[in-house]
Design a protein that fits this description.
CATH class: Alpha Beta
Structural class: alpha+beta
Strand content: 25-35%
Largest sheet: 5 strands, antiparallel
Bound molecules: zinc ion
Shape: globular
Number of strands: 9
Distance between the termini: 19 Å
Strand order of the largest sheet: 1-2-5-8-9
Number of helices: 4
Number of domains: 1
CATH topology: Peptide Deformylase
Oligomer: single chain
């Protein structure tokens, strides 16, 4: 039997669904979280959200640790146990200041573009023991958190660039850049149609 839990690519509809919140941890869910880490590590991702591994639940994982440290550079976990697991995330405050940085997504391979996002956020989430964590995030971790949080709400980073939604700032994306992104999305859609 083929494992259902593999990397999901655009335009799969699960990437557009709002994820269900998690109210208890059980062995099946632990297995799934471990699978998320495997898929993310295999693809050398900085983070992965549950819908990208074919389950519409409110979880994301990242090899980045030290979320409380306001460093500009990400710090990576040496082994799977040390990864950061984020369950039922909420963003309670966004900074007024925005920063632009190049982003990509495992579900949209080889597509990179600059996205403007709040520089800092205050977040609340539950860890793997369902213990509530409150943190102030900046730099890399803020960007990652916002990107993965979006996945749990059916939002992809390209939505901002194509003006489909706003994240609170006006980002001027050059016409040629929009065209490049739209063409890439069309290619993914054609490819998906061809393979079914
Ligand atoms: Zn992504």
């Amino acid at each position: 039997m083929e494992d259902k839990h593999h990397l999901i690519y655009y335009p799969d509809s699960i990437l557009r669904k709002k994820a269900e919140s998690v109210d208890s941890i059980n062995p099946l869910l632990i297995n799934f979280i471990n699978r998320m880490k495997e898929v993310c590590a295999e693809k050398k991702g900085l983070g992965i959200a549950a819908p990208q591994v074919n389950e519409s639940v409110s979880i994301f994982v990242t090899p980045m640790i030290g979320t409380h440290i306001k460093t500009k550079d990400p710090i990576y976990a040496k082994n799977f146990e040390d990864w950061t697991v984020v369950i039922n995330p909420k963003i309670v405050r966004y900074s007024q200041e925005y920063v632009g940085y190049e982003e990509g997504c495992l579900s949209l391979p080889k597509l990179y573009s600059t996205v403007f996002r709040p520089k800092a956020i205050d977040v609340v989430y539950q860890d793997i023991n369902l213990k509530t964590q409150s943190k102030v995030l900046t730099h890399w971790f803020a960007r990652l958190f916002l990107h993965e949080y979006d996945h749990l709400h059916g939002i992809l980073f390209t939505d901002y660039l194509l003006g489909k939604i706003s994240n609170g700032t006006v980002q001027d994306v050059p016409f040629e850049e929009k065209l490049k992104i739209q063409k890439k999305l069309n290619d993914f859609e054609l490819e998906a149609r061809g393979s079914t």
